[in-house]
Amino acid sequence: MTVTTTDPRTGETSDTGIAETTSEGVAALAAASESAFRTLRRRPRAWRSGLLRALADGLEADRELLVTTALAETGLAEPRLSGELSRSIFQLRLFADAVDDGGYLEAIVDHAGQTPIGPGPDVRRMLVPIGPVAVFGASNFPFAFSVAGGDTASALAAGNTLIVKAHGSHPLTSARSFAALQRAARAHGAPDGTLGIVFGQRAGAALVADPRVRAVGFTGSLATGRILLDIIDGREAPIPFFGELSSLNPLIVTPGAAGARGAEIADGLFLSFTGSGGQLCTKPGIAFVPASADALVDAIVARAQEADAQTLLNDRIHGAFDEIRRRLIEEGRARSLAAPRAGGPGYASTPAVLEIDAASLTPAATEEAFGPLLLIVRYDSLADVVGALSAVPDSLTATIHGEPDEAEQIAELTEAVRDLVGRVVYNGYPTGVRVSWGMHHGGPWPATNTQHTSVGVTAVRRFLRPLAWQDAPEFVLPPELRDGEVDVPRRVDGVLHLARS
Amino acid sequence: MTVTTTDPRTGETSDTGIAETTSEGVAALAAASESAFRTLRRRPRAWRSGLLRALADGLEADRELLVTTALAETGLAEPRLSGELSRSIFQLRLFADAVDDGGYLEAIVDHAGQTPIGPGPDVRRMLVPIGPVAVFGASNFPFAFSVAGGDTASALAAGNTLIVKAHGSHPLTSARSFAALQRAARAHGAPDGTLGIVFGQRAGAALVADPRVRAVGFTGSLATGRILLDIIDGREAPIPFFGELSSLNPLIVTPGAAGARGAEIADGLFLSFTGSGGQLCTKPGIAFVPASADALVDAIVARAQEADAQTLLNDRIHGAFDEIRRRLIEEGRARSLAAPRAGGPGYASTPAVLEIDAASLTPAATEEAFGPLLLIVRYDSLADVVGALSAVPDSLTATIHGEPDEAEQIAELTEAVRDLVGRVVYNGYPTGVRVSWGMHHGGPWPATNTQHTSVGVTAVRRFLRPLAWQDAPEFVLPPELRDGEVDVPRRVDGVLHLARS
Question: Is the CB of B53 inside 8 Å of chain A's CB atoms?
Fold first, then answer.
């Protein structure tokens, strides 16, 4: 069976000529991946940072082809796609810097010696790669969370091999991204099996079940995440699953902020919940606005009513967006302030705005809806907000808009949201996640299922595990754990030392 | 219903007078724990390191009572119990040092600025406590892996509250350890609800299911671990489960080592697999010995036959030890070299030694057996060892005994075991785990189910999660993330800085 691709601007489907990967194909890729892993993990860090930079250059060389391909498969705008590819390229280079830095290894040396409870052996510990990693691309980021995305950069930076499951919404973009990476990896001398790709849902399931796969990185829906977790539970040896699953991203506007910057916030919030067709995991899907701030709400509604239609990624997202909106209205959970208008032959729609009172907010009204949908919650007091937050699922982010003279309120809101999310944003918007050393993109269930991030340098930690050597002869130790000066920061006998400069 | 305690030296059971915790009792403790958490996490690090040191002093003050109580409940020897209590006390003080050091926070500051892909906001990230933690004590370490153990030290060092599930094999030791900790915590000013304890299996299950509990630390059997994981899967919001579950800990003696140090290795290995009645998760349960090294094997067998009986912890362990041994022999999987002799009225036994050829080793012969049982695998070549290792479940440790002129063999064996374990020991024994900064006590499934350790300072990471603040006003930031010099190491704009000295 071959894989089809659909242009969401028209809804027209065509054959890609790419075959769905058979179960035998998956097994062969996993075997090659395991074999390459044993070769790859002996390579020094400098080789690996070079690989990441070569992959970045390889993507850059194919920029035009990749962006053009993604345009036809996603309906996203050209500047967004080009910017996203730049982000993927930057990410690979940043992770290369992190590999050179070596701090991510968490190297520790405890020399043998007397301790308060007796003599202790020599113990040296650092993080080592975990093995072949399966990476599931997401529909909404054909570059940054797909074949060339953050999970790929993380798994390779850690020293692993990887096999990507191509997302069915952009198979050609996946295949061409993979070709660019594969060509660059081979030219850099990576062993065959370093990179693999599979197509088709059954191949994805087989990949997660394969005993040679040692970890899974996934960005997608809670429902698919649950299916993959069930497959992992059925394995003889369960493996770590890093899922970024669902997020509503509450945004709170204080009375002071609504008064001082209502129009500006209306603009910013509108751009944030409609950007990329509202198909971002950090989209603010719910906004708490003072009952008195009609002007702010009216401005958002006006912009929604005037907006051009945006093409959504696929039939499923387009359908769910509409269905969730209708259900909320029909069940009387929310009032419609701006109804979406369809536009064009494909999966296009204008934004939708709903409204509810804080006292009426229930968990049934807080389902994540991909697409340009915003639920505005009107409140009388910040105590109402704090109470209503219990109806909002834990999320990747929370955002607080407040004024300098509202320090007490901002502190109170921070206390109220900090246990519910992984990132708190002040006077800004949660979309447009910065790829940096300190970014955290994760949160309590159902935002993610682990205590790790999938964006930023610390995402590498997901695909590493600690290994300790006790009283080891020097020749079996990695260079980073030998005595003398080393090129990584490490803790020696309890004291942190910087890398040799 | 009240809890009973059994003296394993006699098998006699008596009533402790302690009531099993009801489901209402568990819920009340969880509510108090959640409430205390909100208070506790505002306390500065210096307060928390003081708490850990106060707990250590509290245990020291009750040393005699605690050791005497544990003697009667575990049958373990007095020096072992006193040493274990010292280890728990040392552990709390070491973790206090780690809290003062602050490196465990992984603080990162990315200032706002221009990046290769556009302007980036100010992002600051560090690890924060996760919430109320449930800790399950293990039978085999009434102090170091129980109420006063490593999970307790880790959860509190991270800034969490905790509720311990007392192990049914030592309820009085648990209650008295808890009393010592509780008294010290109150004197230090910890809020009510900081520490809790529950008794009874149903209470343990209710604890894991309680929505206010945010993580579970568990050391125990694979079977019980699976039951608790099932409870977590049934929660509305699953939580991290850190299980240390099962380990066989292969030990390999090269031909050179057998020739040069056969008698010494026989002594060391005997002490390692019989120490504490062979009831250590790091017990070397399987040893690969050259087919030619009869003298080494004979020496172990002779020691086993001459040994006095040791009391095992409880009826279940005593029964399983005997059953696994019998099954291996009856099913023809291994030959008996030394049969155990019962001793005394309680759960006592002398050591058992079994033998098998490397070519005959199958997964059916490698079930973990708590108790003084050693399976010796005779091999002709190191290639046989490497092949036979595939029948050994992944473990916490592997041990290699080799001579200086066998560098090539030692390197080859290291490559063969490093993917299978979390710690590789050279010319020593895996038991007697050093509590230090770099110790790693974990391994691939079924040794543990995560990429984390339960011994050593990095065990604290299990009960922390990252939180990021974006463009935050200074007054909501923790002191460790504010501009200026701070008392923790942190990475600022990509560059690691040591703490202000």
Answer: no
